[in-house]
């Protein structure tokens, strides 16, 4: 099995707190979300960006850069969300086709022929109080809100919670 | 009166060539693919917002709004006074749901919520309505070309259609946000210069404008009449225009496309904020030009052209110094091309995604879909051209665009609101609501004497109430069908998990919500604008 590498967290705790505070959160924690990355580039040219997704995601995330900013160390602190399945190369290509249709200036960029790379995307989770608790997910690379990851993160948090309860019962 | 000189023609061709060169240099032939993606992110938010405004309305505003102002003074500003409030609804309700759902076309949300028939019908309505409105957008630069060259409008429509379709099929130039920003400034410069030349040509200057405007009631922007047949009453603007703009900016794929393509919800909000703050001042500027033109025509004893859309282009060509007229006319051209490009692109994208790839050829290659999207672009270009021939009969172009939308978009907005707010509504109700909503708009327009601004309100009210009542005759939707419109964390077990995690997570401190601040800012702006209009009206009426 291919080892899942972790991308370097660029948004530190203070910056994440500031960003999440603006979105209404009153508590935060680091997280790692398991995704697969497919290389994007001009036909026959170098890689210029990466499409990040799982089989379940309806739209992929776009990560710009020739190289994936990997961290040599294993991610330790933070909850690991690994509830997604790997996308097929055909599904990735079709996903990119619709992205290109929606943004015509991306038309010349294509998915390059290679196996999608499994990786850990660093994120920060924010918890917003109110009549109901709300979850906020921001990227640990850019600080942008990532609402499209919410359902996957919620599923992962629920699984983590159930696993923890099971282990407590068995102890 | 210099007319459109050879130098103007050189400037016109030079400007359009320069914009095209910048587009092809920075938009298409990049050797480094990172620039394709980073292009938009290196540019400040205000430039992106201006670019959105340039795509939305600049050319038809330049041509249509002075005609409005000439005819009715500032009374029609109430049509736009509600824009900040409409943007608040978009920011708070529609944009977060569209973004979270991860959709390319907003009609996909209706399929997940109500099934394929609702998506197909709503996408079809968009195609019909936007195709017709694109005809009006095509008519606007053709009219300018006709005024400049003296050729017939129909001939210039055909020339413009050929130019716009070829330009869109080749890829357009909308890739470069800065060119949109330049166009926006050229148009505003044209407007400010028009004001300068017009006012300096009046013996009493601004005094003449204000006394003529006040004497002829042109500063009466706020009409408090409760009579629904008064087209531009404050209530029509608030209760009718509000739904018009929520529907226009929220359910028209060509408008919401950029919001869906924004990297994040906050970016999407920012582009809506710029529209929310700038649309009223921009309309005020162009309506005011109409008032000044009315003063000018009255003082010089001139007869206005039969088609009031020609007012400002005619004035620019006749009064501006050689070269400057060419620049402003070129700005109108380039801005119209940008709007046409974006409208034709969204029409062809919806045709391919919502129809062709679903019903005709589901698993074709990328190259095949590219070809299909080009054929669709040509088809919608021809459809718009046919309608453009009749656009001159619809009055001021800016009103024509909004009226066309209001036949369809009210019912469409009602269906979206039903999908979001009523968790009991289902496919049967949505279809019934959508169809009866539209029919009721047509019936009300034909049978009752009420302001067209209420069309969207009627569409929303009927489609929501009929949709809800008919939904009661069929089973409630499943949990899966509601997943896009419900807070995914609302389930009790999920709330317990989140509460536990929040307790163990790092505390942040006092909250300061950005979205709330942005919405309060828009509401304050609405109050300031309304207050200023009331003051102006109070002054004009002594």
Automatic annotation (TrEMBL), chain A:
The chain crosses the membrane at residues 31-53. Keywords: Membrane, Transmembrane, Transmembrane helix. The keyword Membrane applies. It comes from the Bacteria. This is Uncharacterized protein. It comes from Vreelandella neptunia. The lineage of its organism: Bacteria, Pseudomonadati, Pseudomonadota, Gammaproteobacteria, Oceanospirillales.
Automatic annotation (TrEMBL), chain B:
It is found in: Cell membrane. It catalyses: iodide(out) + 2 Na(+)(out) = iodide(in) + 2 Na(+)(in). The keyword Membrane applies. The keyword Transport applies. The chain crosses the membrane at residues 6-24, 45-65, 77-99, 120-151, 157-178, 185-206, 232-251, 272-297, 317-337, 378-398, 404-421, 433-454, 460-478, 520-540. Keywords: Cell membrane, Glycoprotein, Ion transport, Membrane, Sodium, Sodium transport, Symport, Transmembrane, Transmembrane helix, Transport. Pfam families: SSF. Its main location: membrane. Gene3D superfamilies: Sodium/glucose cotransporter (1.20.1730.10). InterPro entries: Na/Glc_symporter_sf (IPR038377), Na/solute_symporter (IPR001734), Na/solute_symporter_CS (IPR018212), Sodium:Solute_Symporter_SSF (IPR051163). It is a multi-pass membrane protein. Belongs to the sodium:solute symporter (SSF) (TC 2.A.21) family. This is Sodium:solute symporter. It comes from Vreelandella neptunia.
